[in-house]
Design goal:
CATH class of the largest domain: Mainly Alpha
Number of strands: 0
Number of helices: 10
Mean pLDDT: 78
Strand content: under 5%
CATH architecture of the largest domain: Orthogonal Bundle
Largest sheet: none
Structural class: mainly alpha
Length: 223
Amino acid sequence: MTDETREALIRELLPLVKRIARRISRLVPCDYDDLVGDGSIGLIRAVDNYDPSRGTSLEHYARHLISGAMLNGIRRMDPVSERTRRAMRDGEIERYQIAGERGAVPSMEEMERRRPGFLRATAAVTLGVPLSLDRPLPEGERLARDWSGDPAQILAARGEREAIGELVDALPLRQRQVIRGHYYGECSLREVGRRMQISPQRASQLHIAAMKKLRRSIRAAAR
């Protein structure tokens, strides 16, 4: 394949990258431009490695590599490991299975005795996503108001929210501005960069650095 043919194929399939990025950005709270960047790398890899003898079209092959590259980019930004998230999910599933049998939800302390590390995993997941308390829940999610809940759990949840705010407040000024603008202000990194009069690339760098600092703080708090 000549360089001219390779470049022409990449340009031809670039709209596919943008379509997939738009679809994923509607499903997952992430930056559209970051998705396009990761997807473009997947597209280049697809063009370079495509083998027509395998009986599939280049577009079909590229679609899988583009989506995979975007999802890998999203995973890299997650401050909480999949192992920790799984520990929390499995614990919550067991907790509500027990609640169905008893008619009452077991306490977090009981679940910690049943599953050592459950409290630490729950705290890490809760603190690992610096979302605004004023933002709506993701589409399809509902949260019933239960004013009869355990006061200790209500206070614990309030403490976790305050801890998130304190961790964000402790960031350097420009990193704090990026985090608050992106997550609390619901702006893309490009828009945050425009408001701060910096490039989208610099805004992305500040975002990554801030997430690393938050990740270290969260791990320290969970110990």
